[in-house]
Amino acid sequence: MEDYVFEDVLAGSTVTCGFPGLDTRVAAADGPRRARTLFFPGCSLINYALPLVKAVYDLLAQAERVEGISLLCCGKILSFEPDGKAVRAAFEDELCAHVAAAGVERIVAACPNCVAALRGALAEDERTAGVEVVPLPLELEALGYRVDAEVAKRLLAAELEAGAGFYEVCAEGARPPLRFSVHDSCPDRATGEFADGLRALMPAELAVEPAHARRSSQCCGSLVRAAGHADKALEQSQARGAEAVAAGGSAIVAACVSCSFLLSVSQWRVPVFHYLELLFDWRIDWRAADAYMKLRFLFDEPAADGGEARPFKGLAPEPGDDREEAR
Prior knowledge:
GO terms for molecular function: oxidoreductase activity. This protein is an alpha/beta fold. The protein folds into two domains: 2-142, Rossmann fold (3-Layer(aba) Sandwich), CATH 3.40.50; 149-288, Rossmann fold (3-Layer(aba) Sandwich). The chain is built from eleven helices and eleven strands. The longest helix has 18 residues, at 84-101.
């Protein structure tokens, strides 16, 4: 297991996470931190691909696009807790206070849900109304990064070979063309920024468009799964796989980590990739990922014993609890 250490600007803490076990230690910082620009990876990327969090942060920091990082939750999931509206509002008020206190002017966010949630919360508060929130794919495009076509084809070919007896697209020994059907997430429908960034990063010759894309995109199944309808979620996930095959794809590529996870474990027509896997040539083992995320970083109180260690809050459901995050 390897430890990854992050200095969280907004929480004012030093966070050490082991990967893949996600054993976590949180210690209070010596004093408040400030940063004009932040990378905000979001809970899904932290839980499923911690090495990519570090890789992306290092890339952005070296390019002088960010000065710090925060592992905090955007707060969206709190809406699904008891008295969720009030709990989320209280968290967002504290989040805005910390963003203002840290002098943050610009946030690069990896998750479509986080971009929507952060923009909504920050714009409503006069202390943070001027803070810009930028989708990560557009930032990477602006820096000149592109997915290498040969890397993408190699990763997909290896996945299809390893899963030849599992994926329907490989049924009866079929060798489908190496192409990725683009899946767009629900929270990006209004602006299409993640959709634009994803297509700009992908090699044009490897990307195909499904029947439902961009503003007409359809859910991976997360929303109905969050509402407790696992059967309907499975049906929606399978439909996204079928659309990928109909479009001539032998895989799905997405800009949302949560979509990538659910489509990987809830449909078996084609393999699924998050674009960062292709960009960094690092495959996430989706089927070994926990069904419920273990870590959820919120603002918390110092340790009761007065020590430096601070508890972190992981809002994984209790055994038998069918509630799931709206991914």
